[in-house]
């Protein structure tokens, strides 16, 4: 079994192409929901399909028991109708009932899924053979998908891609600033209708491959992963589709390979739906942790560097005030681990701000300049607090201790103008001036 | 003559919007008018009603003598800065270009002319060097100037601005005012929801005082006096707002 077989083999290609295309459409719709701040809608709508699926299959079981091969029509129709009912119930509760949005979403999810579960357990006793049909939709059964599914999902994902490319700019305006978009004459209501129809189709058709319970994962996870990597809406769409497609593909391959690997144990299989969701969730988790700029690791390291910089600036101030100090004297004023303290001092001398002579640390010429600029920010801010905001007493100093590390050159310029280039702070200490010879 | 903005027996009284009660006024073209009133007086609601974003319960509000939908290409709206998610992935340049999206339609292409106009608008508000920046990296004043550039790009006859000076430093506020005065000199009407009373006489030639009901509307010299301000901001209003609030609940069947 080679990699290419997954795309060409008559048995394998159905699940591969099917899930891949399905994931593209749901992950693209996820982007729209994400920026509309309605990402949980996918969760509610997919669960709301369940009673429809149960009703549809039961309907078929009772009236057309001889035409089992056509059950999917009933499944899709039922799922569609009950999901639409769920959507309307949510809208109604939010708009007329003044129910909070998250409460309405959860309520619909729980009630619809509950009704579906009750119906399913009734089926289990009455028509056990048909119950299987419902059961596979709970977690999906991609492995049995055929060429007709490929066509179905190809049509769906092309429709989604076409909609997003054709209406990209209006959609962007709508997601960014709805009131403005409406006032500028962008057909906001039409766009929103299209979004909800496409979302509904993506979900209803998608439950065949990943199931009612897991469907929302394919809406949510890819966009979360994509958002971490880019600052462009276009790229968010593109990356989300890539992550979605890749999850579909990898999940599918892992499921097939894994299941055959574990085949010596007959009870153990790796079902496709859950594998797809696990892959896409791993993408999301990985991105949240390691994505450049927005990822957790980067934010953590930025925090650490900022702390270190604060410590260094405080050391510079201490040296500026006291001339030269020994390591122990410097260390006394700061309740911080010896390691970070040594690191801070090492950094300072590496960058040429301080020097060590005979066990004493002192500022270099450039270091004096640097320390003065910190002191300047501190005293400017104190003056601003006292003069412009009417702060008094100890609070002035404490607040300035923090802000001296934060103020940007731009803010410093504005402060200077606002306070008319002052020369003394509220405690009557001189404010070092910015322009001095090197 | 058509008024720039005209409300007739305007009542807004439902759902989550602030109530407006029997508001009637006319604003002529070519003035700079400040809409003043305390929090919850319905200033933003009035703007949204003029833009057709909120449907009035009764009465009507018209722009340039017509309903908003007929003249919307002549109107630019600047929403409150805090109503926007500034983490949205978009650059300053793209956000400004949205001023042209109304004419774009589906499949519409951004023309070279649109791009150059956007550059010019950014230049006018002094934001050229920030064109490629993510909007999340802009300061409050810069974000507000960005919105103004977007409005300029719409080339409107009427500007409706909702609290454009909130979170904006003094220098930016002055710069925005200069820009808007230039627009007024070209005969445009500029309506600003404003909450800084000391600057009213300096900034505006007309004022509209609002607190659920209309207190007064006219040239600043005639409208902006103690009695009117007492009526708009004073405590005498409390009973009235309570009654109106009760009425709103009755209307929506909550009581």
Describe the structure.
The complex is a heterodimer of chains A (438) and B (255). Chain A has 438 residues and is an all-alpha fold. Among the domains of chain A are: 5-219, ABC transporter involved in vitamin B12 uptake, BtuC; 298-363, Arc Repressor Mutant, subunit A (Orthogonal Bundle), CATH 1.10.10. Chain A has helices at 5-8, 13-35, 40-63, 71-95, 101-126, 128-139, 147-166, 168-176, 178-183, 188-210, 215-227, 233-261, 272-290, 296-322, 327-332, 338-350, 365-388, 394-403, 409-418, and strands spanning 325-326, 354-357, 360-363. Chain A has a three-stranded antiparallel sheet with strand order 1-3-2. In chain A, a hairpin with a 2-residue loop joins β2 and β3 (360-363). Chain B has one domain (5-251): P-loop containing nucleotide triphosphate hydrolases (Rossmann fold, 3-Layer(aba) Sandwich). Helix content of chain B is 38%, strand content 21%. Chain B contains eleven helices and nine strands. Chain B has helices at 43-50, 68-71, 92-97, 101-104, 112-124, 140-153, 170-185, 200-203, 220-223, 226-233, 237-251; strands at 5-12, 20-27, 32-36, 58-63, 75-78, 158-162, 189-193, 206-211, 213-219. In chain B, the strands form two sheets. In chain B, strands 5-6-7-3-8-9 form a six-stranded mixed sheet, with helices on both faces. A three-stranded antiparallel sheet of chain B has the order 2-1-4, covered by helices on one side. In chain B, α5 (112-124) crosses α6 (140-153). The A-B interface holds A 35, 37, 95, 98, 166-167, 169-170, 172-173, 175-177, 179-186, 227, 230-233, 235-236, 410, 414, 417-418 and B 15-16, 48, 51-53, 68, 72-73, 75, 77, 79, 83-85, 88-91, 94-95, 98-99, 101-102, 104, 106-108, 110, 134, 139, 150, 154, 169-171.
């Amino acid at each position: 079994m080679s990699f290419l077989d997954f795309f060409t083999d008559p048995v394998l290609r159905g699940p591969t192409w099917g899930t891949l295309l399905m994931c593209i459409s749901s992950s693209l719709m996820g982007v729209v929901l994400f920026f509309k701040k309605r990402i949980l809608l996918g969760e509610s709508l997919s669960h709301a399909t369940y009673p429809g699926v149960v009703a549809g299959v039961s309907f078929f079981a009772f009236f057309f028991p001889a035409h089992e091969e056509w059950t999917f029509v009933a499944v899709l129709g039922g799922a569609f109708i009950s999901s639409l009912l769920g959507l309307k119930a949510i809208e109604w509760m939010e708009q007329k009932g003044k129910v909070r949005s998250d409460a309405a979403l959860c309520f619909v999810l729980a009630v619809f899924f509950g009704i579906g579960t009750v119906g399913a357990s009734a089926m289990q006793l009455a028509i056990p053979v048909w119950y299987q049909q419902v059961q596979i939709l709970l977690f999906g059964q991609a492995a049995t998908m055929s060429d007709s599914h490929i066509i179905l999902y190809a049509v769906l994902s092309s429709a989604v891609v076409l909609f997003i490319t054709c209406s990209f700019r209006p959609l962007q305006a709508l997601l960014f600033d709805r009131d403005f978009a409406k006032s500028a004459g962008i057909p906001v209501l039409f766009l929103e209708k299209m979004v909800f129809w496409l979302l509904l189709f993506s979900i209803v058709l998608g439950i065949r491959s990943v199931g009612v319970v897991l469907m929302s994962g394919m809406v949510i996870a890819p966009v979360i992963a994509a958002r971490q990597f880019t600052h462009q809406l276009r790229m968010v769409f593109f990356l989300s589709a890539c992550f979605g497609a890749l999850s579909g593909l990898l999940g599918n391959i892992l499921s097939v390979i894994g299941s055959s690997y574990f085949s010596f144990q007959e009870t153990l299989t790796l079902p496709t739906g859950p594998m797809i969701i696990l892959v896409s969730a791993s993408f999301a988790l990985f991105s949240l942790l390691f994505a450049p700029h927005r990822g957790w690791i980067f934010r953590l390291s930025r925090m650490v560097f900022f702390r270190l910089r604060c410590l260094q600036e405080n050391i510079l101030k201490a040296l500026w005030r006291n001339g030269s100090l020994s390591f122990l004297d410097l260390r006394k004023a700061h309740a911080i681990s010896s390691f970070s303290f040594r690191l801070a001092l090492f950094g300072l001398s590496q960058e040429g701000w301080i020097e060590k002579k005979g066990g004493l640390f002192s500022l270099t010429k450039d270091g004096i300049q640097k320390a003065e600029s910190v002191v300047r920010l501190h005293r400017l801010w104190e003056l601003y607090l006292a003069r412009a905001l009417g702060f008094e007493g100890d609070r002035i100093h404490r607040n300035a201790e923090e802000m001296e590390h934060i103020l940007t050159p731009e803010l410093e310029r504005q402060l200077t103008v606002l306070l008319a280039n002052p020369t003394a702070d509220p405690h009557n200490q001189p404010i070092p001036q910015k322009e001095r010879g090197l | 003559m058509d008024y720039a903005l005209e409300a007739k027996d305007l009542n807004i009284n439902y759902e989550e919007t602030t109530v407006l009660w029997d508001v009637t006024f006319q604003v002529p073209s070519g003035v700079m008018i400040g809409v003043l009133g305390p929090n919850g007086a319905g200033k933003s609601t009035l703007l949204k009603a003029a833009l057709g974003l909120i449907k009035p319960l009764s009465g009507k509000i018209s722009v340039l003598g017509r309903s908003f939908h007929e003249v919307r290409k002549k109107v630019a709206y600047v929403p409150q800065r805090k109503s926007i998610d500034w983490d949205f992935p978009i650059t300053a340049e793209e956000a400004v270009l949205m001023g042209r999206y109304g004419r774009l339609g589906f499949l519409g292409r951004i023309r070279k002319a649109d791009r150059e106009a956007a550059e010019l608008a950014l230049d006018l508000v002094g934001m050229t060097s920030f064109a490629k920046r993510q909007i999340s990296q802009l300061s409050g004043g810069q974000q507000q100037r960005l919105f103004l550039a977007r409005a300029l790009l719409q080339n409107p006859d009427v500007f409706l601005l909702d609290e454009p000076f909130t979170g904006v430093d003094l220098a930016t506020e002055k710069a925005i005012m200069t820009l808007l005065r230039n627009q007024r000199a070209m005969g445009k009407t500029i309506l600003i929801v404003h909450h800084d009373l000391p600057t009213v006489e300096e900034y505006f030639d007309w004022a509209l005082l609002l607190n659920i009901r209309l207190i007064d509307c006219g040239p600043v010299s005639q409208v902006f006096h103690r009695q009117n301000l007492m009526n708009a901001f004073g405590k005498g209003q409390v009973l009235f707002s309570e009654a109106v609030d009760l009425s709103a609940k009755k209307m929506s069947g909550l009581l």
